[in-house]
Amino acid sequence: MNRVERHTSATPAQVWSILSNGWLYPSWVVGASRIRDVDDHWPQAGARIHHSVGLWPALLNDETESIESKAGLLELSAAAWPFGRARIRMTIEKDGDGSLIGMEEFVETAPLKWIPPVIQQTAMSPRLNECLRRLAMLAERKAG
């Protein structure tokens, strides 16, 4: 499992407001390019974000499902066709006047599951760090 963390001056509530707005998903998730639909009960467990990945005109339609949603935790299962599914675990903890945001991701299915974990971690860490950088910036903007 690959985990990255980032401190932000935004409060946990401000970070959560970004995570709980499915229409903002491509604003902070590297690779997501557009939203086609968001279930009305997002981010409750079982709700889905219907999104596309890639660059036009080579877009693939995928979806991300909320597995668990509670204060300080959002766990997702994201499709990455044709590569399989990944599990993402977002955590938010109060940290001083701001928050500590954590993001973990691991491959759930083949074919990417066949790649050794150390190579997966090396390849995913920059993407996860960029996701958290974007998420923090959005939450901080909401604060101002």
From TrEMBL:
Native organism: Gordonia paraffinivorans
Pfam families: Polyketide_cyc2 (PF10604)
Superkingdom in the source lineage: Bacteria
Database matches in SUPFAM superfamilies: Bet v1-like
InterPro entries, per database record: Polyketide_cyclase/dehydratase, START-like_dom_sf
Residues that span the membrane, as ranges: none
Name of the protein described by the UniProt record: Polyketide cyclase / dehydrase and lipid transport
